[in-house]
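Tokenise the fold.
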Amino acid sequence: MSTSSIRAIAEQERIDESYVAKVLRLTLLAPDIIEAILDDRQPDIMTWRELAKPFPMEWPKQREVWGSGDFPTQQTVAVHD
């Protein structure tokens, strides 16, 4: 079944429309920010509450807001034989 609106998704999934809208907005995050979140390297300030607030659509401005240049780098784990 194809859904074409936030309301339709909310009704189909039986969840609040505002929640669906907030989750869908996350698709607008810069790819490196999404990667940092998935790798659990996001800054402490980047909570669900913070991400649910309006944020800039432009990726460079998102990086300024959340300081993605400050994201911890992924650590390499040494494997010993």
